[in-house]
Each structure stands twice: as structure tokens, then as C-alpha cells.
């Protein structure tokens, strides 16, 4: 096993390099940054979880020594440790009485992907802003900028005009808050309609709502990314002939019913103030993505052997693309129902 350590250390340096190029802030650097977990997952699935752990240590130390301790800690908490943990779970197995190995179920692995994504987001948030109020203020500022851009592009309608076109520009009386010397003691805005103030109020409300759900959106995206990373790394290792477990039947993936309890607990935790509430919101987003992925797997599973299966699957993916993810809500509900009812067809599984 010790021979795996140098391989893992080298993979960690590659992952650290891919993570560190994000400081360049270019399109290429962002694309390379997105590939950072892959080297760790590849050595974890193709060699051992010890190699992946060596990658975590070497990559984190390299960034901490040559760039900054903060960056090394962020790399370890946000990407490296989650990649090691998922590779470790994927290779868990126990021997059966007949000598075969029962590998860790893909449904439980998907649930852990969601939980890991939520914890990774909260970890990087705490590292960046130990004080929750500061973190919330940063989210609100970012959300307000996004809202302003969307208003400028016309994707978010401006508030309706409450004044009339027949009103002359100078016909308005002095605002109630105007002093005797003509100075304005109230926030600037139209005296009769108050439209700028309404615009500010609308932007603030939308920005606050977006900042509230930001942990769910981030954890949702991270869940999908971690799932893709795990699948891509496993495919690469399988092609090389080093994958230690047989390729699983992905359409049969089904999370245990206990994930419904976790989801319900996350809904309750989301009402708690501070970072615990943010964790609850992140878990809601992460498990929503996991349920959507299970719904997609269930659709693949239930369509097996049916005429026109390719057209059905192609239509589903086109619908997801055209609705820009709105159809994911149906997949989430389908995944929740699939988990709760457990009514998959008890037939021999074919190829996906």
C-alpha cells in the first residue's frame, strides 16, 4: 500500500495546480479549476483511498506553503476532502458467504454526495467569513448586483409606473420632507410616485430572497458536479483497467428512505438563524439535486424494454434543456416518490 502514496502525492500536486490557477481569473483558469477534484478521485478509485488521502495532504500543503495557508485550507475543505471521502465510500465492500463482494450501494453513495456537497459549501463559507452576518452581507451584495444586471437586460421587469403621463415635470408639489430652505430630508425620489424608492425596495427584496436561497443553489450545483466528477473518474479508471469494483447498474440507483428524514430535518433546520440555518438550506438544495438525479435514473430504469425508449429519453433531455431546469421540479418530485414508494419493477436488469 505504501507504493500508492507517491502516486497520490503527485495527483495532489496536479489538483493543487488546477485549483491555484483560479487566481488568474481567466476563462481557461476557471475551466481548469473545475477539473481539480478529478486527479484525487482517479487515484482514490484506481489505487486506494490512502493514495487519495495523500493527494489531499500534498495538495493542501503545496498551496499553503507557496501561495497562502487560506488557499490550502480552502482547497482541502471544499474539494480535496470531499473527493477523498467519496472515493473511499465508492470502494467500500463486504464479502458475502459465497465469496462475492457486496459493494457500497449507489443509492447510499448518491445520498452521501448530496450531504458532502452541503457540508463542503458551509465549510468554505465559514473559512471565508467566520462571522455569519458578514457572510450574509456578502451574499446580499452579490445578489443585488445580479438583480441589477437582470433588470438592465430586461429579464426582470421594472416596477410599474404609478404616475400619469399627463403630469408635467414641474407640476409636483414639494415633498413632505422638504425643508424651508429647499433641502430634501427624505431619500431622493419622485415626489408623487416614489418610483426610485420602489425600485430600491424591489431590488432589496429580490436580493434578500436570492441571498436566502443562495446556499441551496450553490449546494445543488455542487451535488451535480460531484456526481459528474465521480462518474467521470470511474469511467477513466475503468478504461485503464484499474477500477476495483464492477461497474454498477446506474439506472437502478435508489436512495434509502432515511434520506426523506434527512430532508425533513433540513427543512426544520433551515428556520434556525446563523450557519445552522444556512446548512439546512444547503441540505435542501443538495438533496433536491440528488432526488432529481434519482428521478432521472428511475425514468431510465422504467423505460427499459419499452418501444421508443430512445425517443422518450431524448425528449426528456430536450425538455430539461429548453425549460432551463424548470422541469427539474418534476424530476425532484418523481425522485421523492420513487424513494418513498419503492415501486421499481422487480425484473432482471439489462444494460442502461
TrEMBL record:
Where exactly are the transmembrane stretches of this chain?
Answer: 6-23, 30-49, 61-88, 109-128, 209-233, 278-299, 311-337
Stretch list, region Disordered = 155-202
Q: Which UniProt keywords apply?
A: Membrane, Transmembrane, Transmembrane helix
* Name of the protein this chain belongs to: DUF2232 domain-containing protein
Q: Which organism is this entry from? A: Methylorubrum extorquens (Methylobacterium dichloromethanicum)
Amino acid at each position: 500500500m505504501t507504493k500508492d502514496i507517491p502516486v497520490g502525492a503527485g495527483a495532489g500536486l496536479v489538483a493543487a495546480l488546477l485549483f491555484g490557477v483560479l487566481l488568474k481569473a481567466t476563462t481557461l483558469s476557471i475551466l481548469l479549476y473545475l477539473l481539480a477534484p478529478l486527479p484525487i478521485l482517479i487515484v482514490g478509485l484506481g489505487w486506494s483511498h490512502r493514495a487519495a488521502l495523500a493527494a489531499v495532504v500534498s495538495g493542501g500543503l503545496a498551496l499553503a506553503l507557496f501561495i497562502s495557508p487560506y488557499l490550502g485550507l480552502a482547497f482541502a475543505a471544499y474539494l480535496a476532502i470531499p473527493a477523498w471521502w467519496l472515493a473511499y465510500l465508492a470502494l467500500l465492500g463486504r464479502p458475502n458467504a459465497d465469496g462475492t463482494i457486496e459493494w457500497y450501494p449507489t443509492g447510499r453513495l448518491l445520498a452521501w454526495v448530496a450531504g458532502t456537497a452541503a457540508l463542503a459549501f458551509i465549510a468554505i463559507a465559514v473559512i471565508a467569513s467566520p462571522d455569519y452576518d458578514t457572510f450574509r452581507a456578502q451574499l446580499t451584495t452579490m445578489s443585488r448586483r445580479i438583480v441589477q444586471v437582470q433588470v438592465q437586460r430586461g429579464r426582470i421587469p421594472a416596477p410599474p409606473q404609478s404616475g400619469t403621463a399627463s403630469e408635467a415635470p414641474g407640476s409636483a408639489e414639494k415633498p413632505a420632507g422638504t425643508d424651508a430652505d429647499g433641502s430634501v430630508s427624505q431619500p431622493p425620489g419622485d415626489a408623487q410616485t416614489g418610483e426610485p424608492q420602489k425600485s430600491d425596495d424591489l431590488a432589496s427584496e429580490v436580493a434578500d430572497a436570492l441571498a436566502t436561497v443562495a446556499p441551496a443553489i450553490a449546494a445543488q450545483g455542487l451535488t451535480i458536479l460531484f456526481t459528474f466528477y465521480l462518474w467521470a473518474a470511474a469511467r477513466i479508471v475503468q478504461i485503464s483497467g484499474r477500477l476495483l469494483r464492477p461497474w454498477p447498474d446506474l439506472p437502478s440507483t435508489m436512495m434509502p428512505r432515511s434520506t426523506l428524514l434527512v430532508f425533513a430535518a433540513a427543512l426544520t433546520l433551515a428556520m434556525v438563524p446563523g450557519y445552522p440555518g444556512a446548512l439546512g438550506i444547503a441540505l435542501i438544495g443538495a438533496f433536491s439535486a440528488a432526488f432529481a438525479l434519482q428521478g432521472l435514473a428511475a425514468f431510465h430504469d422504467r423505460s427499459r424494454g419499452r418501444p421508443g425508449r430512445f425517443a422518450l429519453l431524448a425528449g426528456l433531455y430536450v425538455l430539461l434543456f429548453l425549460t432551463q431546469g424548470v422541469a427539474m421540479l418534476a424530476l425532484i418530485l418523481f425522485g421523492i416518490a420513487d424513494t418513498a414508494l419503492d415501486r421499481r419493477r422487480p425484473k432482471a436488469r439489462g444494460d442502461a
